[in-house]
Amino acid sequence: MPRDPLIGLVGKPSAGKSSTLNSLTDASSKVGNFPFTTIDPQRAIGYLQIDCACTRYNLTDKCKPNYGSCDNGRRSVPIELLDVAGLVPGAHEGKGLGNKFLDDLRHADALIHVVDASGTTDAEGKVTRGYDPSVDIAWLRSEIVAWIRGNLMAKWGSIKRRHIAVKATAVETLQNQFSGYGSTSAVVARTLDKLGLKEPLEEWSDETIDRVVNAFTDEKFPTVIALNKIDHPDADKNIAKIAKQQDPNSIVLCSAISEIFLRKMAKQGYIRYTEGSEFVDTREDLIADGDPDGGGLKELDEKNRNRIENLKDMVLYRFGSTGVVHVLTKAAEILGLVPVFPVRNIATFGSGGVGEGMGSNKGVFRDCVLVKKGSTVGDVARKVMGDAPIAYIEGAGGLRVAEDQLVAVGKNDILSFKVGK
Description:
The protein is α/β, with parallel strands linked by helices. 36% of the residues lie in helices and 17% in strands.
């Protein structure tokens, strides 16, 4: 059965990876039945914000997710995160927690590389000033490439001999070698298609193998670069340099510590704040806007009032948000994740039987699953229903859909599975 997407967080010590992970998994402001959950010391649940299907049918007031939350059509969907610890230069040679780091990393479908944009920590996370964080981005990728290439070249001779003996395709041979990295034949096929190689595998030069390994790394481990600590005065020049070197679509600017602080103050009743927003309201702000009770908020002391004002100026108004919410959004985007809404009753979008009407207090669109781009209706059926026999599948409007049809946002993304033979 298709497994849930897994997003890995990597970063050198003191880059802010733990703060980023904490801000992504903080469910203190969530409603519904999905509190913050740590699956094991390395795995936790984060929340991806998506546009919920309830907005298409004007049912935002009746949308009651079983997990996560939905606030006026903006839905927070649980997604599994993996804390990949032990990133230091030389990991592929076993330095630091190198072997464990790489073994953990192979389970991830995409990576979020948390980078200290301030340049105040060196390659090993020690306090410094003037460090070039673009170096960190380069050596994370070089560690992964060196790891994969080293494993491949160690047995390249026998790989070629077997390839010729069994008359395998290049995809079949490479998948035998790359399956240990969580690869699939589709990933290998996309890698080779993008390269457009003409020569047969047994004639590949070292240069060709390098190209294949680099392309496979990009395909298997797409990476979001989360430039953290953007409120530090040294961050601007580093961000400008990295923006010239990397694909701008892979970069998210963020301040994890600011997000944690804002959520804490909101939880304690000192401010009104929506995750991912550029706006923060204090008691004084609301009173000035005509609310004599100040929204029922507590009064801030001078220290926290000044900190919030500085945070507004240095982060929220300047960058549009703390960026933390957008980190997961970008990871989902590069993976092409599609939210699909399984329902029992395709007419009411409820989870109950035929008698459940639109006004039912049980709610609509109770469930949402995330599937990878290219998934079919049948893939979703197996993910949701397991091995249960499916008689037929209905889409929005009650029309039957075939299992080989693709799912996409707004297309085959509301499904009802009818069990039977």
